[in-house]
Structures are given as C-alpha cells and as structure tokens.
TrEMBL record:
Keyword DNA damage appears in the UniProt entry: no
Entry-linked PANTHER family: ADP-RIBOSYLATION FACTOR GTPASE-ACTIVATING PROTEIN AGD11-RELATED, ADP-RIBOSYLATION FACTOR GTPASE-ACTIVATING PROTEIN AGD12
Occurrences of domain C2 (ranges): 145-264
Organism: Citrus sinensis (Sweet orange)
Annotated region described as Disordered, given as residue ranges: 105-128
Name assigned to this protein: Arf-GAP domain-containing protein
Compositional bias annotation for Basic and acidic residues: 119-128
This protein's UniProt keywords: Metal-binding, Zinc, Zinc-finger
Domain Arf-GAP, first and last residues per copy: 1-99
Length: 274
C-alpha cells in the first residue's frame, strides 16, 4: 500500500511514480509498510478522511467532458490528469480546504469560507467514525520498529527527497545448497538493496535449502542502480555471517515497462519473471 502524505490518498503503483515526480512539496509519497511513520503523520492522514473526502476537494470542479484515467490508461493520460489535479489545482474546491486538510493550504491563493459554524460542526462529527477507522486500519498495517537509531531516521529522510520512477516487486523464492556458517547448518535470510533502500526476508532456521516465497517491494530511483541481493546467516550473539551476494541490472525491466505504457504499444508486453 502506498500513501501520499501531502494529499492523504492511497495511490496505486502505476500512479506512485507520477506522484513522486511532482516533488515532495506537492505529494510526498511513502509506503505504508516499507517507510517509517510518526504518530502525527498517521493522525494527519486519518484527519483528512480518506480518498473519497480528498477527491471531493481535489475533483470538485472536474469538467464533464474530462475522463478520469482508468487502471489501463496510458502513462501520458495518467500523468496529465494527476498534474492538473494536484500540481495545477484546476479542479480544486478551496471552500473545502478548512474542513478537510490539516496541512497548510496549497500553493495558490485561498478564498474565505462561507460555511457556518453549525454546518462545520455537523460535517466534523460525521467524519469522526471514518477518521477513526482509517487511523486504526493504518496502524494495524504499520510495521515500524520503535528502536530504530537516529542515523536510520536521517537516512530515511534523505531517501524521501529522492525522486522515484516506479516500484519493483521482487519475489524471493528459495535457496539451494547454501554454505554452512554454523556448526552443521545455517539460519539464512535475504537482504535486497536498491540505492539507499533495504528490505529483508524472514530468517529460516537450520536450513541450507530454504524456501521463503516472499514478495518484497522497493522504489526505483530516477538514476537506476543495480538491485543487490545479499544472503546472510543469522547469529544471536555475534555479527551475522555473510553467505553470498549478486547484482541484477534492472534497467532493461524499467525500459520494457515504459515501452508497455506508451501509446504506440499495440499489444501486451510480457516482462517475464525473475
């Protein structure tokens, strides 16, 4: 799951790269499961009320002849709509700003709200249940470690400033005949690294032929680095032992994915499985 912290909406993988290209001052994109969130950020997202409430504000004046992109729309059509919606604010209802968004107003002049206090209170209480559900659901899927160091937090903030072109899902299936790093066996796990980002699988105890069957997600930076695959043996009282590594050039995959999304592509593309 991917969220735009600035606008408060859940976004799909196809739209996430476009949102990132807008810049963090317009749409700061974070992964629900891969990025670190503060309680204040979760509360702010819950306060916004979810996609329906946010779209009511950002799509209030959408022209009747303008078709909203579908899941199968080309990237040019998708990019045009998203930029008009969030960057140019062509469909924005400024009268809803005070009611829906806990952040400062967007980068255009604001208009005064003529909403009465009684109407404001009614809408406020109607949204309480929705906001509560969003906050609870978000925290239930939120996997961050309270003990992370300050250096890790600084690294995460630097990564958040990088522009991304999309996401890559890596299926970690299994390992065969891995090296022995303990007395008779090993406790292997896999780390995937892409630029400053790292994700890892679970540890499988005492197994030289482990089966993970895990799908891990990483954001692809604009300057595409190789995907690094590192295998370690988990140790309890000492530093984890290195077992092996490999590098994968993902540039051809990104190029093929872009070709599939261009209007000149007339047939489905099969990128294969890695």
């Amino acid at each position: 799951d991917i969220r735009s912290l600035s606008t408060g909406v859940f976004i799909c993988i196809k739209c996430s790269g476009i949102h990132r290209s807008l810049g963090v001052h317009i749409s700061k994109v974070l992964s629900v499961k891969l990025d670190e969130w503060t309680n204040e950020q979760v509360d702010a997202l819950a306060e916004m009320g979810g996609n329906i409430a946010v779209n009511k504000k950002y799509e209030a004046y959408t022209p009747g002849n303008l078709k909203k992109p579908s899941p199968n729309s080309f990237i040019d059509e998708r990019s045009d709509f998203i930029r008009r919606k969030y960057e140019k604010l062509e469909f924005f209802n400024f009268d809803e700003q005070a009611l829906l968004c806990p952040y400062p107003a967007p980068h255009r002049r604001s208009s005064s709200s003529s909403t009465s206090s009684s109407s404001h209170d009614k809408k406020h209480y109607e949204k309480q249940a929705t906001r509560h559900r969003i906050g609870i659901a978000f925290r239930n899927s939120w996997g961050r470690k309270e003990s992370e160091s300050k250096n890790s937090k600084k690294a995460n903030s630097l990564v958040a400033m990088v522009e991304f072109v999309g996401l890559i899902k890596v299926n970690v299936v299994k390992g065969t005949n891995l090296a022995v790093r303990d007395v008779m066996t090993s406790d292997p796990y896999v780390i995937l690294a892409l630029g400053h980002q790292t994700v890892k699988t679970r540890v499988i105890k005492s197994n030289l032929n482990p089966v993970w069957n895990e799908s891990l997600m990483l954001s692809i930076p604009e300057n595409i680095p190789p995907l690094k695959v590192l295998v370690y043996d988990k140790d309890t009282f000492t530093t984890d032992d290195f077992m092996g590594d490999a590098e994968i050039d993902i540039q051809p995959l990104v190029t093929a994915a872009r070709a599939c999304e261009t209007p000149i592509s007339m047939s489905p593309c099969n990128l294969g499985n890695g």
